Protein 1
Amino acid sequence: MGEDIQGEKPTLRTLSQETGFAVATVSRALAGDPRIAATTRETVTAAANRLGYVPDRAARRLRTGRTQVISLLLNTQHEFLGFTHEFLSGITEVLAGTGYSVTVVPDSPGEDRLAPVRTILRNNLADGILFTRTEAFDPRVRLLMEADFPFVSHGRTEFTTPHPWVDYDNEAFARQAVQHLVAKGRRRISLVLPGDQFTFTQHLRYGFLSAVRTAGIDHEIVPGVTLDSPPPAIAAALMQRRHAPNPPDGYVCVGEVTALLALAALTDTGAVQGVDADIVAKRASPIFDNVRPRIDTVFEDLRATGRAMAEMLLRRMNGEPQERLNRLFMPETDV
Amino acid sequence: MGEDIQGEKPTLRTLSQETGFAVATVSRALAGDPRIAATTRETVTAAANRLGYVPDRAARRLRTGRTQVISLLLNTQHEFLGFTHEFLSGITEVLAGTGYSVTVVPDSPGEDRLAPVRTILRNNLADGILFTRTEAFDPRVRLLMEADFPFVSHGRTEFTTPHPWVDYDNEAFARQAVQHLVAKGRRRISLVLPGDQFTFTQHLRYGFLSAVRTAGIDHEIVPGVTLDSPPPAIAAALMQRRHAPNPPDGYVCVGEVTALLALAALTDTGAVQGVDADIVAKRASPIFDNVRPRIDTVFEDLRATGRAMAEMLLRRMNGEPQERLNRLFMPETDV
DNA sequence: TGAGATAATTGAAACGTTATAAATTGGGGT
DNA sequence: ACCCCAATTTATAACGTTTCAATTATCTCA
């Protein structure tokens, strides 16, 4: 089925026959090679447009070794609602029209995080890699740096060798969140942290601790659970603390799920947010606009993060010096 | 940098030199061609494993025309929190290990929905296509059927020619949701519908209307807004109805955002969910477990949907007859 | 014993592109 | 008229795979 009206799919040979120039000349003309005469280039590009020529990716890839593909290692766990959606939208937004396509590779939390990277390197499946949930001495970063393979990490590392990264200032977020609660008169602030292996956990911890110490107030980092724990486990831990003597009157929540859990814990113990306690949450989606009672939020723009990472990867693949390829997003307070 | 310990990347020629068989024989042996002697096949596969041979995708693609790529047209709008994440996880789960990779192509709601499909067809960018938010006479379905190109739609169409689809029984969902509210004694039920162009909107409408008529109760389909309207607009429409005489005492919510909006509308007008009115919502993520007051929910398993679509696409590409490639997920009531 | 069939293997071509090296053209300067 | 050089263009090979058609080795049967 499907008779082509135009006939066969045009190739360089088609254009060669059409214009009378050799295949090599046509290729050069389209590539913008300066050794080709301007008139020739015009003739060739005109013919290419007329016939709707588009270079064959497989052939180009075979010849040059460049895949025109960017791989995104996507974690199956995320504390933000809509993380994947926002992040991915930002990336595809930038990459649309560049000729690069985005492939998604699952990055399972418990499994070997190196395996997908190794596969990509060994089988030459991409020209660049993006990934999230970076660890302090992330083995993926080490491997990719050794291989001199282009990548951008979402999150910083503690390696001394510089590499491209995009991050959010979680230290500033934690500090501001505490200060906001202190300004509301709160004196005992609770925090659930992500797993210790992630770099941003240290940033959160440091910002949180230094802010509570400066303010001279009490704090607690909820023990036994992380942001990646099953929500019921987090809920149980929060409830336990609410029933203990001296329950917290302020909550700093790094994810939306935790914020809802904290809110539920308050409600379930007869406390009222805004009266008996306050919550400050980092949000990535507008969902909290619809939650009652309202929660104070700090916005993290994950779409912009995705855009920044994609742009940075393009620049890295273009050979820009790595030292300058960093971007730290500052928290934007809504309230 | 990066000195290969193993030396060069192994190709068919490497295996040929290693085993003494010709390149053609090696290729056939690995492909399982029955004309190749069993002993030869063993020798060759052993060498392939030893050297870690993996076929070059570009070369294979150039030769066979098959891309080993599946394109996912991903809409930038979705009423479910975590839709993208769940759906994509299901797809990659099935495709992992099959040799297919998934590329994500943005499918902008306002724009020409055919453009990305045309690009994929013309430039031979994929072997199969998955997409969502199917319309009654979806132009993408028409084009792909004409081109005899493998695809699976999320949602049915009204074309007479059969094609592969995976869908959720939204008619049953709407009916059950109404019945649940009626059983709680509710007599005036409200519903916000998606845009009229989508097939599943008709299913929702039909299930909703037939259930309210059977029960002999009042209903209203909120006018002037759809599920894709900006949340503030939906909120305003809901509030307007709450202030009017005879406000609804039951809400059927197709998405999580709408459910939160309805809950907020109740709260903001001093009504209490569970007392003055009830909400039944379709959910795709466990978020509602954390919302107070609790909302009755019906689960739609989007991860399973993604899995089903990927599996079905593989079968379609394997040449199975299209008539049998359908799957309708039934609602699972939680409460 | 040899012809004819069958089984197993192989050389060579092709997919569409880019890069290397060589060839052609048109002037300028002598 | 000649040579040389720059400006263009071109033939050719290669990337790694699959497949057609042809070749060689092995077997069966008269």
Protein 2
Amino acid sequence: MSVTIKDIAKAANVSYATVSRALSDHPDISEETKKKIKKLAKDMGYTPNIIARSLITKATKTIGLIIPDITNPFFPEVAQGVESYAYDNGYTVLLCTTNWQIDREKRYLKALRSKMVDGIIIAPAIDDISHIISNFNGGDTPVVFVTYSPDDPDCSFVATDDYKCGFMATEYLLKLGHRNIAYIGGLENSSSDRRRFEGYREALKSYGLQLRYSPMHGQFKQMSGYELTKELLIYNDIPTAILAGNDVLALGVIQAVEEFGLKVPDSVSVMGIDDISFASFDKISLTTVAQPKVKIGQLAAEIIIQKINSPQDKTPVKKVLEPRLIIRRTCRSI
Amino acid sequence: MSVTIKDIAKAANVSYATVSRALSDHPDISEETKKKIKKLAKDMGYTPNIIARSLITKATKTIGLIIPDITNPFFPEVAQGVESYAYDNGYTVLLCTTNWQIDREKRYLKALRSKMVDGIIIAPAIDDISHIISNFNGGDTPVVFVTYSPDDPDCSFVATDDYKCGFMATEYLLKLGHRNIAYIGGLENSSSDRRRFEGYREALKSYGLQLRYSPMHGQFKQMSGYELTKELLIYNDIPTAILAGNDVLALGVIQAVEEFGLKVPDSVSVMGIDDISFASFDKISLTTVAQPKVKIGQLAAEIIIQKINSPQDKTPVKKVLEPRLIIRRTCRSI
DNA sequence: TTGAGTATAGCAAACGTTTTCGCAAATGTC
DNA sequence: GACATTTGCGAAAACGTTTGCTATACTCAA
């Protein structure tokens, strides 16, 4: 039984239209009345019912954020970016994690539509995003992709250049003198993994090298990096360097390599991609390619809010951010 | 211009009450009509407007989650716990991070009330929670605290026993033979930090020891642990062991200790509290006291949903979870 | 045939706002 | 002092649902 505008109206002996206007500082209302009503509202402990407001204004002031895995330290940082920008602009964010499952993604998409979020920021679980497009091509709700650059030219997104990430990392390894470089990937149908792998392959090619190790895929989890590496090391042809699809994987790779009795970087160099915060921890000192994680989130939030504010402008905005090589101590020259 | 119940009613040539009932499988509607209407709804791409529904049912099927810092790997895990439980029960969660700032906490609390969330799970930024209580003592919206056990006997919460965390950790160190044990804390007015510190002090006392090092406080950040430790090491009286208020701090502590030229654990043992996922990484192998993080989130979600479902039952439910000592390799006996 | 009972479906109010339109009183203009 | 303009406010519709009550048309027993 919370206090509504009508209660205030009754108490102030005015119509509830007046209360509504007074509270939103409408110029039609006299200063005196405004003051009176505002005081009353405060005293009575009034909180506007945004649900009711949304019904008529068709704006919920909330944006949906769909990410695969909040447990991978990469995502909290982008979440942080969107949340803080959203907060500063009066929006709140609905957190949805898909656990890389497309059916969860679909269900959340539906739920967000039902909940009338004003916009959606999504890091898609897999490469195929047709279900997202189709869910929103009616298109009153703006969508921006993060960590993913869709082929569809009409989609807005902000992502770092994954191809370049893979390329840069591999190139660095090549420059260090490595020729036997393996790639340990995450989810096979993840687009960023695919592009990183592409970059890796092209870098090899640019040095006249063929793929020597068949690409390995699992999940974007430390455990997966660990297991895939174990598997990799079974064979005699041990690489001098391993590029992991991301930092979390790289941690697993290191663990497996050292458990195998090899030293990092002495015997095998290991590189990650992402630059999660623990990569810089001295005991780890993971050489990696950094993505501007918080910035990705911030930009995405900025774009989505701008899109919300000018719904007529349907032109997609695309931001591709530059990765940055971070040299630490898990790679050595040979 | 999305399709509404009225559109379907028009198309089906029935009243919109019928449509509403058909879609919610009300027994009053014939199977035939239901089938027809459901098909129509699907074909027309109908998505219920939950906003409108909420206005009348007074349930938004969303719960607010307020945490201090999504960037500290501790919190994503509890977030994960609540989110997945919520998802399974048809709820979605509104993510609010306060960055340990009480004014953000207040503003979010207000926003959540406005947005009519059905319940709130909150890890308070600081010890004083009067603003939370006062905001919700009207009390139709259930609140459960996590990571925090309020003094107020009417509050529901789920938390691990922070006092015991501190005690256990310190006791372990004492058993290893350490007598000069320093404590590096986080936020000074954080209740969990305070209780952990209490546990630490009591453990010392149980061994007949006084506080030897004045308690140090900063933030719950790696950098803070690093800086405080640097400061601690300035003095001649270097401890043989350092207990950090949490794992993230501990990482900073280790960094500072080693940078100072001391070995962990050879010269100084370091302990954390929380057992964040990276603590188990081989290169770190942080000895710590584990909290069941995901479980905390899950339980909190379970409790809040149960409370939402039986609003008449106001009895607080309190879960205090047991910490678990995790012995790894940053502590040695002396 | 009548009356009660049951299966379906419609009417209209309600949820708490915002907003369009209109109207009366106050003020300004000559 | 007559008219136009401004100021301040109220009436009521609208947003998209759900739901209590009512209404119709059957069925079936007496």
